Predict the 3D structure of the following.
Amino acid sequence: MTPDNPNLSELRDLILKSQQELLTKDDIRRVNELARTEAGSREAVALIDQFCALSDHNSLESPAIVKEVFEALRGQPESTAAGAATAPAPHVEVARKERPTSHRPTTRNSGESRQYAWFLALVASNILVASFAWSLAKNQSGIDRAASSDPLRTNSLDRDTDATPQAVVPQLVSMTACVWRSTADTTPTIGDPIDSGEVLHLVEGIAELRLGENTGRDALVRIEGPASVHNQRNGELGLLRGSMTLTGTGANSEENSVSIAAGRVTIGPQSFVGLVSDDTSSELHVFRGNAVLTPYDLSDERQEIRLEDGEAVRVFQQTDEGVQLVRFDASVADFVSARSPSFDPLNLDDEYAKTIKQSAPNVYWRFEQLKGDFPFYVENEGTAEGMNALIIGNPTWRQYGENRVAEIGTPSAAAFHAEEQWPPSALDEYSIELWVKPQLYHHGEVLCLHDPLVLKDGRYQHTMMLEVTAKHYFTHRLSESEPNRIRFVHRALGATQPISATNIFSETTYEARMWQHVVAQKKGDSQRLWHNGRIVAERENPVPLNANVQFLVGRVYPDSEYRRFVGQIDEVAVYDRAITKDEIRRHIEAAGRSVANAPESVSDDQTSESAPAT
């Protein structure tokens, strides 16, 4: 989106509004008016495509989906196709729609009717009709031209002896919070084909590619950063390093092939597999269907490794005994992109809230409902006066039974900002407790405390930061050797000491698309980080917490999307003391979760402390 274009900004706000409430007739009229322009149509389709990202629905940029929606549009009454608003639009649920937890994504064969019904509902809502008709028709003509002009879509691959019949150009159809290290002058863009011979370096995020559209080799590939993928000249993908999944979709009736470091993987029709590749080992997981790994360095009698449903194999390329094989059970949990956003529900009730309130937090944000007119806010249920959390942007919400949680970072970089300042005086002790569910491995700000005054360069000083990190050049160098850790920073505003003296990283990685309980804590001269009930990092740090700073959830600066967090957050509780080990254990158990069983560095005096009387 062009930041300085007010029309596109208004269009985006209206589309996001449709995810929260019914649009009025004036809203619908304005949406269709803005979407009839060329720029507006591109913006509308791109945003709705983000709602589809990493769900069971196919991308709107997919050629087959283009045809389906275009045919649906052609079949609409003339008044609808013109964008007439004859009735209020129904509530359009896309990315926030609840789906049964499953380890197997819906394919075009099994979910086609549901998917097609969703697009018809979108068309019938009178929202974006003009934009789809304008943009998708143009998209379709471009696809037809590409099919006739691209040598990889024809049989002119005879000059490549390893060429695969019906090879087609992979197309990038969606991505979530992606950071690319481009080998060219441009970065990958949704809707663009991946050129033959091109290498994609995904530093962070999850990218989705469509393969073999309408060739019998239809497949959806999800690449998990950090990863590098090569679009080989024979029309096959090569996973150079990292992780990815491949799912046969639609009319998938032929085999697909992917090269990994250990060899060539042939994937059966309608199969769903996971692949891992690096310099020393490779893995193949078969979640559905079958696959064959043909290693480069095995003897003839063991040349093919055949796997069926639920089987996996790991190939070690470099060992003292040569190539080694290890067979084990396939694990979909090892692949973040194979889990839906609703994976691992967090079912909390009033009893959980009662348990938290017994510990008397100063600030307690539950995210169950919004209050006020504009701006909306999350009410503070803690003991401190005020301290409500104002909404920045347009967060979405996800319901788990009786519990509602905030979902931020995609499709829009929303956040929550406390208008009031806290604490009233400097603190030697404090605790910040929350439940967090990162959608992917990335570098994002979960929660921070910053100086209300902005610096001349637009930045803010921080006295406390809680982040998820990833291994790439944007992340602080201290975490490069240990990626995907939780980082806790505690320092004085404007301090001159090195960052290495103020931050700690968890000794274990955090889990993507899994709920985890986190406590960032200062107790006397000790700075501690708790993860699922045990201390995972600790250091000496005598610096007190600065007084009169502001809470910010979801990004590092209140007026910038820089370093945004992508995922779900719930039950933020802030204390002006160090809560005890026993309290942390009770809070986790009140959520129906188990406390991590591992050695801790907790002193005996903390274990014997008790919560304050309420």
User: Anything to note?
Assistant: The mean pLDDT is 76. The CA atoms of residues 230 and 595 lie 42 Å apart. The longest strand covers residues 199-211.
